[in-house]
Specification:
alpha+beta, elongated
Length: about 160
């Protein structure tokens, strides 16, 4: 897909996030002198073409009181990983969950799920819930706790800050 000037303006206007209003695309349209339906259609076309991967909430968990945030990693039976991963991703305390290739021999994990809680004890209890859900399909697991936020930004266009 070739981006025209209007697509680039939309990307630039939304790179730091959508406005927190009941009608965010209408507000973006106001900023750019475009109708809401055009903003939505263009963003959908960019998503369909892979220019935009997704439109999602990226909360600052620390600001919400979730000071214990851990990326749990799981070594799952490959034949069951996709179905079980979908179940883990649907849990209310998992903000994102995805499959990745293993990096053997040092990294046997193929399922990653970010768990959030106010304390590490709370996160460990949630990790135990995930382990129970995965059952015998899980061979091993670990958790990597966050110590700071490294990135909370949206898409950036090449050559534009």
């Amino acid at each position: 897909m070739t981006l025209d000037a209007t697509d680039r303006r939309i990307l630039k206007a939304t790179a730091s996030g959508l406005p927190l209003t009941p009608h965010p695309f209408e507000e973006v349209g106001r900023w750019l002198f475009l109708p809401e339906n055009e903003v939505i259609a263009r963003m959908q076309a960019m998503q369909d073409d892979g220019v935009i991967r997704r439109v999602a909430v990226a909360p600052n968990h620390y600001a919400l009181g979730m000071a214990a945030n851990g990326m749990s990693v799981w070594d799952l039976d490959d034949a069951r990983a996709e179905g079980l991963g979908a179940q883990v991703g649907a849990l209310s305390f998992v903000s994102h969950c995805y499959l990745r290739p293993r990096a053997l021999p040092d990294w046997p994990y193929n399922l990653f799920a970010m768990l959030h809680g106010r304390t590490r004890e709370e996160v460990e209890a949630k990790r135990a819930e995930v382990a129970a859900l995965l059952g015998t399909a899980c061979r091993s697991n670990d958790i990597l706790y966050s110590t700071r936020i490294l990135k909370k930004t949206g898409m950036r266009l090449a050559g534009e800050g």
